Amino acid sequence: MSYIEDRATWFEGQGLWQHIPASDWRDWTWQLKNRLTTAAQLEQFMTLTAEEKAGCAFANQKLAVAITPYFFNLIDRNDPNCPIRKQVIPRVGEMVISAEEQLDSLGEDEHSPVPGLVHRYPDRVLFLVTDRCAAYCRYCTRSRLVSNAQDYNFHPEYEQALRYIEAHPEVRDVLLSGGDPLLLSDKKLEHLLSRLREIKHVEFIRIGSRIPVFLPQRITPALCEIFKKYGPIWMSIHVNHPKECTAELREACERLSFAGVPLGNQSVLLAGVNDDADVMKALVHRLLRMRVRPYYLYQMDLITGGSHFKVDVRKGIEIIRALRGHTTGYAIPQFVIDAPGGGGKVPINPDYLEQVTDDEVIFRNYEGQTFRYPLKSTPKKTPEGATIPQTPIESVVIY
Ligand code: SF4
């Protein structure tokens, strides 16, 4: 059945926490203190399936459970197949480890010159600043270290990392990630951003965060002032399903945008969550309405215990094909596979190209019709009979 949503409505309000003063609800520290972290706490509000109970029993050896009250409200407690529920409540499938899965599926640890810093590509580094998140995604690529359930004992060394970046003038791009960088206090975040801004060769600073989605209350005016002061700071948020696009998230995105933070979105293609063209179309349309440009759609990394979320790559291609030409170009993310072991992101596209010869390109459009684009200019007679000289294609300037 195709996904149908009420486009005029944005989820809002305190849901199950109506009795809490609005000032507490809007306080991000209250949301963190009141996270649901055990099966017993979840069962105060819902009936867990046997699969989920077994998943919760195992979770603390893999990735902790934590769900903010704000995000818990988005779960359909009567539907075991709710796409929001699947993302944050563990299921027994996490205990199944397949041969091709790896703890460090992108080979980050072997490119880490300093604890917390990954330097794989010449001009950019990944700066992991914490192992904590507001809530934990059951398909997390960094579940080996995030929440420390696997005793990884992650201890980022900020000063060492900053000195490393200072000493490497080839690094022009720094991505703050984790864990979730926006869980740091304003003071720590400001310290990191100010130090990075002092490094002349660092041109581009970006943050990967799911905080706006799990904890939009964290996007405070004070935090936005920090982004303004040290901007431009780019941010990739992480929304997988249109139900996550609430009034509170939309307002948080507005605050970030008005502070000059360009926003992109990264989604992971997840079985039973967003492996459907109608769901993805609803999501990308909501993202644009929230001032967020859909950026990447990821084939899920080969993380341990992730096979129950795995989707056939052909489904991702089908989703992109269903979007391209059928909706706004800005709405279409790039579908990528992050090459296992650390080969980088590789774009995976529907095959529109049929043939390229010296004379022409033959391709299909979004409706499957075939078109030809000539690569050579054919001399043509003027009305008076004079021949127009042929212009080499490289010399044509398009204004
Ligand atoms: S927010 Fe990001 S780092 Fe944290 S659990 Fe989710 S995917 Fe992993």
Account of the 3D structure:
With 399 residues, the chain is α/β, with parallel strands linked by helices. The protein folds into 2 domains: 17-95, no CATH class; 109-347, TIM Barrel. 27% of the residues lie in helices and 15% in strands. The chain contains 13 helices and 12 strands. It has helices at 22-25, 28-33, 39-42, 50-59, 69-72, 83-88, 158-166, 186-198, 211-214, 221-230, 247-258, 277-289, 313-323; strands spanning 117-121, 124-128, 173-177, 204-208, 233-237, 263-269, 293-299, 334-338, 345-347, 353-356, 360-364, 370-374. The strands form 2 sheets. Strands 1-2-3-4-5-6-7-8-9 form a 9-stranded mixed sheet. The radius of gyration is 24 Å and the shape is globular. It starts with 21 loop residues before the first helix and ends in a 25-residue tail after the last strand. Mean pLDDT is 93; it is low at 393-399.
Give the arrangement of secondary structure elements:
Elements: H1 22-25, H2 28-33, H3 39-42, H4 50-59, H5 69-72, H6 83-88, E1 117-121, E2 124-128, H7 158-166, E3 173-177, H8 186-198, E4 204-208, H9 211-214, H10 221-230, E5 233-237, H11 247-258, E6 263-269, H12 277-289, E7 293-299, H13 313-323, E8 334-338, E9 345-347, E10 353-356, E11 360-364, E12 370-374
Parallel strand pairs: 2-3, 3-4, 4-5, 5-6, 6-7, 7-8
Antiparallel strand pairs: 1-2, 8-9, 10-11, 11-12
Bound molecules: iron/sulfur cluster.
